[in-house]
Task: structure prediction
Amino acid sequence: MLSFYGDRDAGVRAAPGETFPMTPNLITRIETFTVAPRWLFLRIETDSGAVGWGEPVVEGKAATVDACVHEMADYLVGKSANRIEDLFQTMYRGGFYRGGAVFMSAIAGIEQALWDIKGKTLGVPVYELLGGAVRDKVKVYAWIGGDDPAEVATEALARKAAGYTAIKMNAVGAMAWVDSHAALDEAGARASAVREACGKDFGIAIDFHGRVHKPMVKQLARVLEPYHPLFIEEPVLPENNEALIELARSTTIPIATGERQFSRWDYKATLQSGAVDILQPDLSHAGGIWECRKIAAMAEAYDVAVAPHCPLGPIALAASLQLDFCTPNAFIQEQSLGIHYNAGSDLLDYLSDQSVFHYADGYVPLMTAPGLGIEINEEAVREAAKIGHRWRNPVWRVADGSVAEW
Result:
């Protein structure tokens, strides 16, 4: 599905690398593209011909966010794309209701595109506009799947052979509020198999995915502790984050959370609890690049690390890397290359230069192209949008037939 807002014929195209005057840079057109496997892309064009791309999406609710983007367009068309903070404040505060996954994801994709325009206009990467680089490369990790210990060990070894130095895996499948010791033993066996296969220095992040409820979470952490995880992610649902205080007292494993929190205000209580070691804001959900940079600064003040959440597409990853390059407490980046969600269409398929996310020894080197640092293959995007998608996450149930967390 493709939709647009504004004057389809306004503006002129610029040659690659060409810069534009900072004024007026008025927004003339906003287009959205629903593309496989489960993404929503956004294109903003200005009267100077500058074009920026963003990725505003809630997985499984792409059409809902698409509608929200075009409602936001009433605040944007005819305004200067240079005034990113003012436009953010207008979108955030301009409606009586604010926050939440849909609103903040719509704002996030728009905001990413505005930074892309500004960087291209000035001829510099976005991180140069946010204080400059603090590192020369960013560590990345890869996802692995599988339920059988031998299967996850094989997948982890394949990622290690590809040059990754860290992976992330699910802790458990569908889990009841109070589950069996067998479920705990299976989780331990999978973690043990990966650790034994890949060695003591290999990073193993374990995602609870909010599937585990308070009665089981301490037990599961205790089972996993001997395998020295890099972190455990979203041990409980974010609405139950008060349980992390007790969990933090009972485990030495670093605790990560935050993918389902959507603004700096959502993170206040999380940081004040003292229970979290790593924040995971998603730059396509939590208001965009500048909002997540503010969240990272809040985390730094609490001596908390940042590992941006990003199982999404190339634009979201590019935005995340721009943040990583200029953020002292960012230490590792999620990315979706080869993830099981991407069947039929993967991370690089919509890029003109697929080498831009070149992973060397588990790192992405400092990106130097202007804006978000990527060049979108617009023809491929427009063709894919003719087909679109209707991706939905599965609904899981446990043995008694009740709904479980996915």
In short: DSSP finds eleven helices and 15 strands in the chain. The two ends are 27 Å apart (CA to CA). Residues 8-13 have pLDDT under 50 and may be disordered.
